[in-house]
Write a structure and sequence with these properties.
Layout (H helix, E strand, L loop, with lengths): L29 H27 L4 H4 L8 H9 L7 H12 L4 H12 L11 H10 L5
Helix pairs in contact: 4-5, 4-6, 5-6
């Protein structure tokens, strides 16, 4: 498996209990570092593993998320995941459009329509708009 660059991740979650950009402190003594490591491992177990399971479940967390929930996107997804996601509503709609393009075209189109209808996306040359338009016209007349 090849490593993805940070900018290739669409869904990002913070695991630290600190403000954005802050990290756990490491010490010069082994005991303190072992305590820090224990905290990190517990947070991974308590926060990351449950989120991973929701993506692996059938139906998975994305299959359960509906376009009507986009109006309160962060609140609705945070309730479902148990943690917040680091993305915008438009980028999430774009990801959902791409994810469902080949497995549930009707759902992909719902997210594309929602994204194109947003005031902050009018007259935008954002790269995702090309995907929205492609999905909305896919298989038309075929």
């Amino acid at each position: 498996m090849s490593k993805l660059k940070t900018d290739q991740y669409e869904f990002k979650f913070g695991l630290t209990p600190f403000a954005r950009g802050e990290r756990w402190e490491y010490a010069d003594d082994e005991g303190t570092n072992l305590e820090t490591l224990s905290k990190i491992l517990n947070i991974i177990k308590d926060k990351a593993f449950p989120v991973i399971e929701k993506f692996k479940a059938t139906p998975n967390i994305l299959e359960q998320f509906e376009v009507f929930e986009m109006n309160r996107f962060h609140d609705n997804l945070t309730k479902r995941l148990g943690t917040s996601i680091a993305t915008t509503d438009l980028r999430f709609a774009w990801a959902m459009t791409i994810i469902f393009e080949n497995k549930n075209l009707a759902k992909a189109r719902q997210f594309a329509k929602w994204a194109l209808s947003q005031p902050n996306n009018f007259n935008s040359d954002w790269f995702g708009n090309e995907d929205f338009h492609r999905v909305l016209t896919k298989n038309k007349g075929a």
